Input
Amino acid sequence: MLGAAVVVLAIVAILASDAGPPPVVRGTIAPDFDLRLLGSPVGPDAEHFDLASVSGSVVLVNFWATWCEPCEREMPAMERLYEQLRGEEFELVAVAIDENEADVQEFQDRYRLSFPIVLDLDQSVYQSYQTMGVPESLLLDREGQIVERYVGPREWNAPEYVERIRALIAGEPIVPPPSRL
Output
């Protein structure tokens, strides 16, 4: 009888424990965020990028840092992708997880990046997306649903990425890539 009571209490304890946030995976809606744009003043006049404000567009959310060499390698391709798809109901936003805004500003100036860069100085959005490192990117469809998570750098303006994004813009069904076992 004592053993049964212990098992019941253990089950109750497990069920009552906090399981944490739901996983941020393919097929789920991306967590909304509202972050200050790079170069915008701190305070009430600050300009922000709110993910919900681009609802209806296909969005590529990229997490990166200035100290990340693979991030640095992929940024020129991201700029080319952004320029190529500008005006096609596509948005790209780079979420900088650096603690120093000046470093991010210097990086943007050096690479002449024109897409929105937002500051996640406390890395709260980075954590809410359950990222594993940088660079890491999520491709969202028009409804904000995660279509794909890309870990590591990519040549973003390569035809396969451009075609996939254009297919999403056109509303074509996206078949997930085959799993590699």
Summary: Residues 69-85 form the longest helix (17 residues).
